[in-house]
Amino acid sequence: MLNSLNKFFADFADEFKLNFIDGGRWKWLLDGIVATLEITAVALIIGIVIGIIIAGVRSSFDKTKDDVKAKDPFLYALFSIANFICKLYLTVIRGTPVVVQLLICYFVIFTKIYDGLPVAMIAFGLNSGAYVAEIFRSGIMSIDAGQFEAGRSLGFNYIQTMRYVIVPQMFKVVLPTLCNEFIVLIKETSIAGYVGIMDLAKAGDLIRGRTFSAFMPLLAVAVIYLVFVVILTWLVGKLERRLRGNER
Q: Mean pLDDT over residues 185-193, rounded?
């Protein structure tokens, strides 16, 4: 029994040395972690910006379309076109796989950009924006209509009411869901290697290709992603408890 354990630990140590120590291959994982976090952070920022714009257009159209149509038919027509474009964007992005969107961005749209990192940031940002937009829109629509009327009674116009009254409350409602979108996004970036980026998943694949050992590098990649998700889930849970405490 003792000899079997000693052999197991010896084999494990040899595998670990082969995959991560020899040739400094652990640095590939470190570079992959950095690239993964960079793509996720920038894509989330792009997604939030797109989400705010689209959610603002769609929720404003739903709330004010009757008044706008009665007062200014031309403005209503422009508003309808903008709303249609936003709905088309949401349908296309949410209806196609993110890997296909990434490949289209790299091989079709941004053919002059040879560095895959900014292309991946844009592609994942565009994809995240569709989901963030629906998160924000549902948050805006969940705010009681009386809040909007209260803002208008204070002398705010529509944009000021959205900025100072509705949006701050909306962020409080959707923040936990937005954090969950961040968790999903960080896992989706594992396909960035399709456009030649040394992300975390690609680093594990390169190690496997050099050592012809699949178990150790893939296990390391899975554990690192799991650690990211566990930490972010814990932070989201803590944030939700704090928000519930503030409501009381």
A: 88
